[in-house]
Amino acid sequence: MRRAFIAITLMGASLYTSAGELADFAVKQAHAKSFTGCDAAIKKTHEFATGGDIRVNVMSFDETPNSLTMTSTWGTKGDSLYGKTVFTKVGKKCVYDSIVIITSPKTCFAYAQDNPAFSYVAEAADYLWFKNAGGINMQLAPVSNGCIAVFNPNGIM
What we know:
The protein is α+β, with helices and mostly antiparallel strands and 157 residues long. The chain has one domain (2-156). It has helices at residues 2-10, 19-32, 39-45, 108-113; strands spanning 55-59, 67-76, 79-90, 93-104, 118-124, 127-132, 137-143, 146-151, 154-156. Strands 1, 2, 3, 4, 5, 6, 7, 8 and 9 form a nine-stranded antiparallel β-sheet that branches. Strand 7 (137-143) and strand 8 (146-151) form a beta hairpin. Helix 2 crosses helix 3 (39-45). The termini are far apart. Residues 1-17 have low confidence and may be disordered.
């Protein structure tokens, strides 16, 4: 069981230095699972991916051939990103829904100031909620060494 987990976890792992290279690699990983038709959405969700330590893993099920889940991490120590996106083909369109988590060494106050497109909405539990004009939510949570920012971008392409 442990060997199977390790093999699945490392499948699709690679090292890239530019966003274009990672986006192309992510599309190839989807194609390897026989998932096509969402190339533009996959590239969009990886358009800013850079750094020296990047990983991509894809998962699909035979029972849901029109859906694929892609998990990616990239960035640098102390300033990294985790993204998990579900891509679903609906006719000739691709619907995507992402959860993106960014760790930052900045305080949440500084992080919010660096993202002026987001306006404060409310505070709930440990999270400060913000929203931009495009409807994307940003939640910020302070941690001992900085801030965690959570985003939920989605769309149809």
